Amino acid sequence: MDELLDRFQEIRTEFIDVLRRFPASKRTERLFNQWCLKDVVAHLAGWDRYFVDIVDALEAGEKPAYWGSMAKFNATSVEKRKDQPWDSVFAEFVTNGEAFIRRCKHIPESMRTARFWDHKSITPVQMLEINIHHYGKDHLAAVKKVLARFQ
């Protein structure tokens, strides 16, 4: 899991650097299908907070809440932050991601590969792998591609 955490931190560091270089005037333009950059960051902040809540529930011996519809979760995460300025959404994204990393470092070895939902085969290790893919493959590449148009 340490290698996965290192990889996640590398991707986040690069993502944060790319976000800081994105022109401020373009952060609220619809450049990512139905979303602007602020929406992309808002939904990632929502997922990172949710993953922190999952780890907290597991460590408390509780079953974490299942996210349900991914589309609905994403829409709710974006809507919740819609009226917040970029700086607030970006700061929450950074803070939630750091909290997720800290929490993952303290997951006991015995829990890292344990399923936490009866109807899904997701484990904390898989949760981290999903996040690595989500950041790196799904969003970092897209944000870098759009950013290149402005440089």
Descriptive overview:
It contains five helices and two strands; from the N terminus they run H-E-E-H-H-H-H. It is mainly alpha-helical and 151 residues long. Helix 1 runs antiparallel to helix 4, helix 1 runs parallel beside helix 5 (124-149) and helix 2 runs parallel beside helix 4. The chain has one domain (2-149): Up-down Bundle (Four Helix Bundle (Hemerythrin (Met), subunit A)), CATH 1.20.120.450.
List strands and helices in order, with pairings.
Blueprint: H1 2-21, E1 30-32, E2 35-36, H2 37-59, H3 70-80, H4 86-105, H5 124-149
Antiparallel strand pairs: 1-2
Helix pairs in contact: 1-4, 1-5, 2-3, 2-4, 2-5
Computed structural class: mainly alpha
- What fraction of residues sit in β-strands? under 5%
| Mean pLDDT across every amino acid position | 92
Q: What's the helix-strand series?
A: HEEHHHH
Number of strands: 2
Unreliable spans:
none
Write the CATH architecture name. Up-down Bundle
Strand order of the largest sheet: 1-2
CATH superfamily: dinb family like domain
**What is the domain total for the residues?**
1
Helix content: 55-70%
Distance between the termini: 36 Å
CATH class: Mainly Alpha
Give the overall silhouette.
globular
**Main β-sheet: number of strands, strand sense, barrel status?**
2 strands, antiparallel
Radius of gyration computed on alpha carbons: 16 Å
CATH topology (fold) name: Four Helix Bundle (Hemerythrin (Met), subunit A)
Number of helices: 5
